Amino acid sequence: MFLLSSHFIFKLFLFLLHFTHSLTYFLKGCNIDYQEILSADVSLNCADRKLTTVPDDIPQNAGSVQLNDNLLKEINKEDFSRLLKLKILNLKSNQIVYVEDESFFRLVSLKTLIMKNNGLTNLTSDMFKGLSNLTVLDLNNNNIQFIPKSAFHFLISLQTLDLGFNALQQVTDIEPILQLSKLQILQLELISFSTFDTKDLHLNRSSSLKELHISSDKLKRFSITTPIFPFLKTLELSILCHDFTWDIPDKTLLRNITQVYLSGSALSFKGTQKILQSLDSLTHLKLNLLKDWFEKVLSTVCKIPTLRKLDLSDNIIHNLTFKLASCSQLTEIDLSSSVVTDLPKGSIQSMKQLQSLNVSYNKLIKVPYDIRSLTSLEILNMDYNSVFELNCEDFKDTVHLRTLSLKSNRIVSMSRCVLEHLTDLKFLDLGHNQIQYYEDIFEIALHKLEFLDLSYNPIAYYETEEFQALWSLKYMIVGTFFTAQAKQKTFQGSNNLEDVFISHEHEYEPNFRGLKHVETLTIYLYCNDDFKVPPGTNYEDSIHFKSLKTLTVICRGDRQGFPYIIPQIMLEGMEHLEMFKAVNVYNEAPGRGTFYFYPHLKSLTISKTDLTDLDPEMFLAIPKLQSLDLSESNIKSLDFLLQANLNALRYLKLTDNEINVINETVFQFLPSLTYLDLSNNQFSCECSNAGFIQWIKNNKQTQVVNAHQYECFLPVDRQGTLLLDFDVQSCWNDGSFFYFISSTCLVVLTLLTSFIYHFLRWQLAYTFHLFLAFVYDSRRRKKGDPHQFDAFVSYNVHDEDWVYREMLPVLEGEQGWRLCLHHRDFQPGKPIMENITDAIYGSRKTICVISRHYLQSEWCSREIQMASFRLFDEQKDVLILLFLEDIPSRHLSPYYRMRKLVKKRTYLSWPQAAQHPGVFWQNVQRALQTGDALTEETDLLTGPAGP
């Protein structure tokens, strides 16, 4: 039974140890990504940590684990056995060559498994056992040469599989894969198949595959002659073999294919033409890396009546001199990144159904002429070209245009007429150009415009109230055009504007009047030596941020500290602000009243600022703060947190500061803290940080990010070593720990003694005297000593007269009893307690003469206690109670021992026997004559059952 209990306790201990271990937030090689919204699942980042084994401290509630870019060589059963909630596991770019069978068996919730860029050569039958809910499996770029038929048997929910860049030799290797009932996407890039022939595949039923991606430098023949792909919609072929043959004798076998991506320098014109002629249902075609017959194949392309989208991106076209007259059915064309220098007149003119045209990342110097005739055009992307001029005729007839992107061109100016016909325009990007002047182009009826980017343009002047007509504007990015000529009504009329991004290089004169509905404002400044704010700048008339929720101010440059960029008056109207970020803005710590107007602030960043004199009362006005970033701010201590009242804070970042020593008790004032980043501080690896080191390792609430990488800065001889490698045990062995334990024990002992004395002293006294009585009685019995006296008389000195006058003459004189009196019979020089003990145990009976004085006497109390102990010890009738006074029951309450005895036994009352003293002494005689045995009939005393 004992062994069974011990075994159970040992197992329980191991369970509790494991449970406690799983709760800790100190992770040796990983970080838990911070989540603004609390979730039951955590996301763990263990990427690029040079790990050679899977960490054994991964939290059990991890929902995502990133272990990519490490040095793992094998996966074992125990590595992930506890992670029952894991949904995403990334093992990409390791050196994994071995996976033990059933290593993923308990990952019943896993949806995505990425094992790309490893060294696997074979897949075993039980490698993926247990992954019944896996939907995505990436095995790209391994060296897999063999796949057992049962390797994918357990993957009943698999939808996407990537086996590209492996060493599979023949198409029959993928038979087990095609049998998966829910597989939709199969990636087979750079395989070693020489043929892909469906006749070689012996499947029990048709495949559910919808997308097939194949690329190879060895594939010579692609043949589909059996109806095994009835659901195939997308086919990607990248062919690098010059002898490639396309064999599809029956077009109906590909009747559901709508998207085809063809690439490869080895494709011939005839081969490409044959492929295209086999596809009658094609709607989306991408051609890439084709040769000089590129233009000829377009004639075949345009004859596909179902074709709607043509993607010719990432080709080398230079001059598109041909006409696409026969491609009038197209609705989308992508010519991006194809070195196009011109779209000659008439090249796309006939595409009356064209809705989207992408010519970004080319070398166009003007808007193609044919754009004017594309009346159905809705999206035009001309980013990253060399267009330097926009004419009034360029977009005259594209009245349905919704998106116009001209980012990163060389446009110098714009006339009002350029955009005046684009009444449906919603997105306009003119950022990163050379625009210095434009007419009142925004005063025209662009009532549907929602996004406007004018950033990074050297605009020097603008007209009054020019944005008033942009009624629907929600997101706006503007550049350095707020100058002394700015007017008061810049944004008036833009009532729907929600997000504004403003950048300035040399001069900053804010004018935000009219932005009463904006929710997000970003001010990006280049704070160099020539940066300035014009004198006389009036903030008061331009601040109307009643709805602002997010404010970001960033100063990039050599100069630090521009407090006037965000003056106090500007902050007063932001009563709904939830996020405030200021980088390189303040030249000293903000005042205590800075955030007085932000009761709803949840996220605060003040970085690249000297916060040496930070006043903790600054935080008292923002009790709801959840995220605080004070990085790169010369902070030397965390003591300010003691008074900051940050009870709701969950995220604290203090990287790149000058913190040496941390008192771990400061975190008691951050009860909600779950994420702490102290990277790149100047930690002291001495006993002064022992408590902090222990707190990092043992606390179960706060994750200290990258704690295992914190390095020692002090003392000099420890520089380069790790903070958590410091031996804190040496701090406990220097005597201070002994003194601490000693003083603690002394304090505890004092408190315990006081408690015992106050509450348990009588119980201990009982125990002590009972022990003495037991010892004395044992010795007496061994000696066989007879009783020396008939009765020991216990009385108080105030009642001595009654004893000598009334009791002795009767009991000793008339009745002949031998009585023991302490004044007469105690041995001189002997300790009082020994005399009392000898008297009680040396007498057959003990007579207690009880009065009020008796109850108040300490020695009388000891005597009756001893007599009571003898009564309980020997179980003999040895106690006679004589009451000299009538003492009411309520007066006996403080003397609960006496009350207890009286309630259990009858007693003699002298006041009640005053009229018949003879009867009284006869009863005493009878009591002295009775034997020692306790019986129900032993009741010779007079008096009531209780006082």
Automatic annotation (TrEMBL):
Residues 787-928 form the TIR domain. It is a single-pass membrane protein. Residues 1-22 form the signal peptide. This is Toll-like receptor 13. InterPro entries: Leu-rich_rpt (IPR001611), Leu-rich_rpt_typical-subtyp (IPR003591), LRR_dom_sf (IPR032675), TIR_dom (IPR000157), Toll_tir_struct_dom_sf (IPR035897). It comes from Kryptolebias marmoratus. GO terms for molecular function: signaling receptor activity. The chain crosses the membrane at residues 737-760. Keywords: Glycoprotein, Immunity, Inflammatory response, Innate immunity, Leucine-rich repeat, Membrane, Receptor, Repeat, Signal, Transmembrane, Transmembrane helix. Belongs to the Toll-like receptor family.
